[in-house]
Amino acid sequence: MKQSASFQGLRIDHNSIINLEKGKIPPQALDLEEVVLGAMMIDKKGVDEVIDILTSEAFYKESHQFIFEAIHKLFQKSEPIDLLTVSAQLKKDSKLELCGGDFYLISLTQKVSSSAHIEFHARIILQKYIQRSLIKISNEIIMDSYDETKDVFDLLDNAEAKLYDVTQGNIKKSSETAQNLVIQAKNKIESISNKKGLSGVPSGFSKIDKLTSGWQESDLIIIASRPGMGKTALALSMASNISIGQNIPVAFFSLEMSSLQLITRLISSETGLNSEKLRTGKLEKHEWEQLNVRVKNLEKAPLYIDDTPSLSIFDLRAKARRLVSQRDVKLIIVDYLQLMTTGGTFKTGNREQEISTISRNLKALAKELKIPVIALSQLSRLVEGRQSKRPLLSDLRESGAIEQDSDIVSFIYRPEYYKIDTWDDDDRSSTEGEAEFIVSKHRNGGLETIRLRFVPSLGKFEDIEIYDSPYEFHSKMNAAANDDTFKPDTDQPLSSTGEEESDLPF
């Protein structure tokens, strides 16, 4: 057979071919979606870990959205969550066939053996959802920008609001009816009425607790003062009262002092040994015994200290979430607000805006975790220039947003620091070892000025009432002196030592 004449093929320019891989596909993680849903159906622990992280919209595949909705409905009704109950719920919702039937549900449970790492997987799914949300919002902004009828500044406001929601990682909750909210409020009031003691987290100071009924959930509390007034000492005294005295877990974020310095202060406060002795290590035999016995309560206390320097608000939120979920922390203390950063991405160069972002996020954190957040804050030098050294709301440093975002704003004032010997009241009593806790803003209660006792040698604050008699003053300055756990021969030296140290000027 004769060979046909060779024909010339078309020359193809490979550079002009577009591969499918180069196409734009919305960010997604279908394999992780399958794993998470499968884990939720085989392990209740998996449901508890991710039910508050994800919503149905976070899933890319529609069938996965339906399955998650079914699981969420079962969770709300406190019904068991497994392959059979989810299948029954989907049948009830007429969505089982849309999801691929029982076969698909079975295949999901076969893809996973446990709920290990489910939270990590859920976070990735959420990230993909946030990416898709950003794409959607960006498209909306582009479309709106082409609309000549819209005001430019309205466009900016809308764009800023949309992007802020995404940067916060917030998935907007649906609105609730007044009926549901009233029921929730009634249930909360009923639970408070049945609860003995305070409705919030007790500070350990009787008059403060009487005024606030304890630190309330979702509240942002600001404690501000000039340097040297004892912000950290008061915060540590509260942390000690709450974690040691009440066995309530507390998280303490220290941006100023190291964790070892803080714990040394707490040891001083608990043992009655002044900080100078602890720094030098020059302790008598009975003082070593005192240290070993009294420090045991502190060792057992559910107190978690983080001394990460230059902590960003977004790192704080991540750490706080973990502490609340893993350690059941009921109170967060930040020392102090002005040392925090907004993170590299959000630096504007305007410190006032950064402080506003930080205070706004601290309030959002308190609301999100449903726990009180106490943030210490510095005051401006305006205080020093006035005849009256009592702080005012206008003295809050760098931003008025702190005052706006907070539920309680309080100040610490020690006249002794300014060499003022007597109080400016009718009694003209001595200011030695005394301080005022001034509540200048209280969103849900009254305003009051409360006197506290400050013990400089131990770096702690106490209720002033316990010092009403000489005997109580003497024993409280060194509480371990009257502790039955100590040997009789150690009582006298401890008592005398404590009395001598208590007379030292600050």
Short description:
This protein is α/β, with parallel strands linked by helices and 506 residues long.
What key phrases describe this protein's structure?
DNAb Helicase, Chain A; nine-stranded mixed β-sheet; 9 strands; 506 residues; 2 domains; alpha/beta; disordered C terminus; single chain; Rossmann fold
Account of the 3D structure:
By secondary structure, the chain is of the alpha/beta class. The chain is 47% helix and 10% strand. The chain has a nine-stranded mixed sheet, sandwiched between helices. Helix 15 links the parallel strand 4 and strand 5. The longest helix has 29 residues. The termini are far apart. The C terminus is likely disordered.
Sheet bearing the most strands, described? 9 strands, mixed
Spans where pLDDT lies below 50 across 5 or more residues: 467-506
Q: What's the architecture of the largest domain in CATH terms?
A: 3-Layer(aba) Sandwich
| Number of DSSP strand runs | 9
Rough outline: globular
CATH topology of the largest domain: Rossmann fold
Helix content: 40-55%
Our count of helices gives 19
Mean pLDDT: 78
Strand content: 5-15%
Under CATH at level 1, the class of the largest domain stands as Alpha Beta
Number of domains: 2
Topology pattern, helix = H, strand = E: HHHHHHHHHEHEHHHEHEHEHHEEEEHH
Alpha carbon gyration radius:
30 Å
Task: Identify the strand order in the major beta sheet.
Answer: 3-2-4-5-1-6-7-8-9
The end-to-end distance, rounded to whole angstroms, is 115 Å
Global structural class: alpha/beta
Q: Tell me the name of the CATH homologous superfamily of the largest domain.
A: P-loop containing nucleotide triphosphate hydrolases
